[in-house]
Amino acid sequence: MSERVFPLPGPFKIHRIVEMEGAFLQPGTLFPDATPEAVKATETARNPKLYDPASDRLVMAFQVFVVQTPRSTILIDGSVGNNKERPRNPPWHRLNGPFLDDLATLGLSPDDIDIVICTHLHADHVGWNTRLENGSWVPTFPKARYVFVQSEATYWRQVLAENPPDMVNHGSWGDSVEPIFQANLAVEVPDDYEVEEGVRLVGAPGHTPGNAVVRLEQDGERAYVTGDVIHHPIQVEQPRWSSCFCSDPEQASETRVAMLDTIAEEGAWLLPAHFPTPTAAKIRRGDAGFQMVQSL
Predict the structure, then answer these.
(1) Are 267 and 282 in contact (CB under 8 A)?
(2) Ranges assigned E (strand) in 119-240
(3) Can you give the pTM of this predicted structure?
C-alpha cells in the first residue's frame, strides 16, 4: 500500500489519501490572533510533527477521506486536484500527484465511489470532483452522487454573480463544481441531512456560511470529519483562533468550541481536513481548556 494512504480508526472503514503534507504557513499568517508569544506558549509549538521552528511554519496536510460503509463507498472533500489552474497559490498550481494511484491501493477505482460529500466549496476541498479529460473537466467519479449543502452552493452562486469567476475560490467553481451540475450528478441538501444510515451532515457555519461536518456512527462509535471547522492542532489549545479564510471568524470560533465540546463529551474521533500525521485525534476538556489525548 502506498505510504500516502493511511487507515484510520473509528466507525466503518476510514482511510485518508494525502495529496500534500509539510510546513506551509506561519501561524500569524493563517490565524490573525496568533502572536509569536502566544504561539511559543503552546504545546503544539514544541512538537516538530506539528510545527517547524526553523521556518516558523505550521505542518499541515491536504487530504481526502474515503469511508467504506456496508452500503456505500464515500469520498469526503476532494482536496486540491490535478492540473488545476491556481497561479495565486503555487503549491496547488497544476499539481500532478498520484491520487488515483493511491485510491487504487485501496482496491478502488473512480467507478467504485458511490457518494462524494463536500463539507464546503473552497478550492482545496473540491479539486478531485473533476479531472481533465481531452481538454475538458469531467466528473472524476461518474457513478457517484455529489452531495452539496444547498446554502453553501447558493452563497457561492451569489458571490460569483458579483465577482469575476477566476477571483472566487481560485476559479474552482468553473473547473470543479459546475461540471458536476452539468453532468446531473449534484444533489443539494439541507445542512442537517442523513446521507445514509450512520452518515449525517451537520451544519457548522462560520468558516463558510453553509459549512458542514460529516458525522459517522456505527455500533456506538462516532467520528466527525470536520473539514475546516478546525485547521490545525494549535486550535485545540487556542480554539478562539479563527483562520483568515473564515467568512465569519466569530461564528467560526463558536462553532469550533461547540464541536470540540461535543467530540470530547462523546469520546468521538476528530478527523479534520488539514491535520498532519497523526491525523485522527481524541479530545479531552479540562480546567485549562481542550487537549489532544490520543492521536493516530
Answers:
(1) yes
(2) 130-133, 136-139, 145-149, 186-189, 193-196, 199-203, 212-218, 221-227
(3) 0.96
DSSP character for 249? H
Q: What is the pLDDT of residues 154-203, one digit of tens each?
A: 999 999 999 999 999 999 999 999 999 999 999 999 999 999 999 999 99
Q: Which of 12, 3, 2 is CA-nearest to residue 214? A: 12
> What's the grid cell of residue 267?
469520546
**Residue 129, phi then psi, degrees to nearest 5:** -60, -30
What is the rounded distance in angstroms from the CA atom of residue 97 to the CA atom of residue 19? 7
Judged on CB neighbours under 10 Å (0-12, 13-18, 19+), 54 is exposed
Distance of alpha carbon 85 from alpha carbon 291, whole angstroms: 38
Separation CA 252–CA 121 (nearest Å):
16
Report, in angstroms and rounded to the nearest whole number, the Rg of the chain calculated over CA atoms. 18
